[in-house]
Specification:
The protein has helices at 17-29, 62-75, 88-91, 112-123; strands spanning 9-13, 33-37, 52-55, 80-85, 95-96, 99-100, 104-107. By secondary structure, it is α/β, with parallel strands linked by helices. It has one domain (9-123): Rossmann fold, CATH 3.40.50. The protein is globular, with a radius of gyration of 14 Å.
Length: 126
């Protein structure tokens, strides 16, 4: 009997309600369970089964983004961090106290399928 792959669990952070609604609807359409928040601080207690954290950092204070992502990375080093930004150079070398915060930075605009491909690749152990 073949094992059914685990459905990816994703947390999306954006201060834009249209972004949250649109991405949540898109993910639901491709079978990805999504929770959304308008603040990274609210997402610090991300459930352990979460596959990816998708963040739109341009809508949030930069210092908060660095601190909160570093805290999330420390708590869940296996978690895929995806940053969707109009300013990828600001986040290319994201670090706190000289320690890099590993994240994939995707420039805006980005297609939903690009985000889904990254999440599924990570979920499959890639």
């Amino acid at each position: 009997m073949a094992l059914r792959p685990t459905t990816p669990q994703v947390v999306v952070i954006s201060d834009n309600p249209e972004t949250l609604d649109g991405l949540q609807a898109y993910f639901a359409g491709v079978g990805i369970h999504t929770r959304s928040f308008r603040s990274l601080q609210l997402a610090r207690a991300i459930p352990p089964a979460t596959t990816a954290l998708v963040v739109f950092p341009d809508e949030l204070p930069l210092a908060d983004v660095v601190e909160d992502l570093a805290a999330v990375r420390e708590q869940q080093p296996w978690l895929l961090l995806l940053l969707i930004t109009a300013h990828p150079q600001r986040f290319a070398a994201l670090s706190r106290d000289g320690h890099p915060v590993q994240a994939i930075v995707l420039p805006k605009p980005v297609f939903g399928w690009t985000i889904v491909d990254a999440i599924r690749h990570h979920a499959e152990g890639g």
